[in-house]
């Protein structure tokens, strides 16, 4: 006996052996034997897996199989050709670059950096220039934190600028997902102005597959109008020297990115790069001694963008009114394809609000200094910025004194009450009612015990609900037509 087959007939199962013996099992009539014989005939016509061949293919034979395969292959090739012709963000002859002022450690930097990393990821940029990047006393930087969220961005460079009393520094950086074959920098500080902050130009050669090499220079010019004119001169000389000193193939493909502190109606420092022949602007005296060369003629990448391209500021006051963040490219070797501005704060305020509250709660429990200036509209209270306060609350702030101790006592008391409620021999509904009452009492007690802490916690400033006070400028650049 090779096996058995069963079938249902009038709610009665009849087990027959294969092949069928000469006599039928008790309970099987002659009609059932005939039905079973038909089933055996069907089974014998099927393959080893028990699946019958389609009747059409069975009738047409191998010709039909070859025809179906040929049609399927042609369909796949057609779909692939359509996909291949569709626009791609990063083809071999396109480079995507960006610039972003990350706002140092202002307002919950651990929450903001996660959002900034998401913006960089969404932009699909090959490299991004960063300004106001914090380096901590232990040697780590905010670039390291960004790279934790962006594993594809393996390469980076950081140049410190401004020292802080805690041993940390602020600087300029580059983060990249393509190799940085060379990195160098130069001090472009002008000593004669009111701005005493050090200014640097940080440059790197990007190695792009099938595109060649590109020099990417990142900087942050002075806020002082006179000083930034001299910063621009030093930057120009830096780039001119870089072309010859660090020359590689296609090294004259130059891009300048950064917070250039150029505002609406006053682009004086940019004239040296975009219109060096213009002698009628406020920086003309500083530019008089510059030896202008044709290779260092640039265009503004926002010429390929839609709208005004404003990037500053995300703050309620003065609002988004200017475009200090620029990306300039060498007009003889590159062309702008399109540009976009990201990070207006709408998504951050919606998606990161709970994270902001949690970060504030932790700082309130620590009752430590804010570590930064809360700006003209806020004061530092219990380690966070609060609007409407007359002055900063000196650390440790009295209104939040012992917040962590009070939280521990209240939490332990709540846990004891919950455990006791479970040990009582009550029915389910009674136990549920008791738990609801306990939760209500805990909530009321917490509101009374943490009255001041909760008031400070909920007083989130509008400025705080932004990934940065600047917006993220991203541009796609390509090679000019032959």
A few lines on this structure:
This protein has 482 residues and is an alpha+beta fold. The chain has 13 helices and 16 strands.
Indicate the percent of residues in helices.
25-40%
The N- to C-terminal Cα distance equals 81 Å
How much strand content do the residues show? 15-25%
**Can you tell me the overall shape?**
flat
Helix and strand pattern: EEHHHEHEHEEEEEHEHHEEEHHEEHHHE
User: Oligomeric form of this entry?
Assistant: single chain
Main β-sheet, spatial strand arrangement: 5-6-4-3-16-13
Description:
The protein is of the alpha+beta class and 482 residues long. Helix content is 35%, strand content 23%. It has helices at residues 30-44, 55-60, 62-85, 109-123, 142-149, 225-245, 271-274, 284-287, 346-351, 353-366, 403-423, 428-449, 451-458, and strands at 3-9, 12-18, 94-101, 127-135, 155-163, 169-176, 180-187, 200-208, 212-220, 254-259, 298-300, 325-330, 335-342, 378-381, 384-387, 472-478. Strand 8 and strand 9 form a beta hairpin. It is flat, with a radius of gyration of 35 Å.
Structure keywords:
alpha+beta, six-stranded mixed β-sheet
Please give the structural blueprint:
Elements: E1 3-9, E2 12-18, H1 30-44, H2 55-60, H3 62-85, E3 94-101, H4 109-123, E4 127-135, H5 142-149, E5 155-163, E6 169-176, E7 180-187, E8 200-208, E9 212-220, H6 225-245, E10 254-259, H7 271-274, H8 284-287, E11 298-300, E12 325-330, E13 335-342, H9 346-351, H10 353-366, E14 378-381, E15 384-387, H11 403-423, H12 428-449, H13 451-458, E16 472-478
Parallel strand pairs: 3-4, 9-10
Antiparallel strand pairs: 1-2, 3-16, 4-6, 5-6, 7-8, 8-9, 10-12, 11-12, 13-16, 14-15
């Amino acid at each position: 006996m090779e096996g058995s087959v069963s079938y249902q007939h009038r709610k009665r199962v009849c087990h027959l052996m294969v092949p069928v013996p000469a006599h039928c099992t008790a309970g099987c009539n002659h009609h059932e034997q005939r039905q079973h014989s038909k089933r055996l005939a069907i089974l014998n016509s099927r393959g080893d897996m028990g699946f019958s061949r389609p009747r059409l293919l069975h009738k047409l034979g191998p010709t039909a199989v070859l025809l179906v395969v040929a049609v399927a292959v042609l369909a796949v090739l057609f779909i692939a050709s359509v996909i291949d012709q569709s626009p791609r963000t990063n083809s071999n002859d396109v480079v995507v670059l960006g610039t972003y002022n990350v706002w140092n450690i202002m307002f919950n930097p651990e929450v903001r950096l996660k959002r900034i990393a998401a913006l960089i990821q969404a932009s699909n940029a090959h490299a991004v220039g960063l300004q106001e990047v914090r380096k901590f006393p232990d040697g780590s930087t905010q670039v390291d934190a960004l790279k934790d969220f962006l594993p594809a961005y393996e390469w980076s460079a950081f140049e410190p600028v401004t020292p802080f009393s805690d041993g940390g520094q602020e600087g300029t950086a580059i983060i990249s997902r393509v190799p940085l074959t060379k990195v160098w920098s130069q001090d472009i500080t002008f000593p004669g102005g009111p701005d005493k902050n050090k200014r640097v130009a940080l440059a790197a050669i990007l190695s792009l597959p099938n595109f060649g090499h590109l020099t990417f220079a990142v900087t942050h010019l002075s806020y002082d109008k006179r000083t930034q004119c001299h910063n621009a001169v030093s930057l120009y000389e830096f780039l001119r020297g870089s072309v010859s000193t660090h020359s590689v193939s296609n090294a004259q493909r130059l891009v300048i990115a950064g917070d250039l502190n150029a505002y609406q109606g006053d682009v004086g420092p940019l004239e040296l790069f975009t219109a060096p022949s213009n002698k009628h602007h406020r920086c003309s005296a500083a530019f008089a001694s510059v030896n202008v060369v044709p290779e260092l003629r640039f265009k503004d990448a926002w010429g390929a963008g839609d709208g005004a391209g404003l990037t500053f500021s995300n703050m309620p006051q003065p609002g988004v009114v200017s475009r200090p963040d620029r990306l300039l490219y060498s007009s003889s070797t590159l062309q702008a394809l399109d540009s976009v501005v990201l990070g207006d704060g709408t998504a951050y305020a919606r998606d990161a609000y709970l994270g902001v509250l949690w970060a504030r709660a932790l700082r309130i429990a620590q009752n430590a200094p804010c570590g930064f200036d809360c700006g003209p509209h806020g004061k530092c209270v219990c380690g966070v910025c609060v609007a409407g306060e007359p002055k900063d609350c000196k650390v440790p702030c009295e209104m939040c004194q012992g917040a962590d101790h009070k939280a521990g006592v209240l939490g332990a008391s709540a846990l004891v009450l919950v455990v006791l409620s479970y040990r009582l021999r009550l029915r389910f509904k009674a136990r549920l009612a008791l738990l609801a009452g306990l939760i209500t009492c805990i909530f009321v007690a917490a509101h009374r015990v943490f009255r001041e802490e909760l008031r400070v916690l909920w007083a989130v400033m509008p400025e705080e609900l932004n990934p940065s006070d600047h917006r993220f400028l991203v541009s796609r650049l390509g090679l000019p037509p032959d």
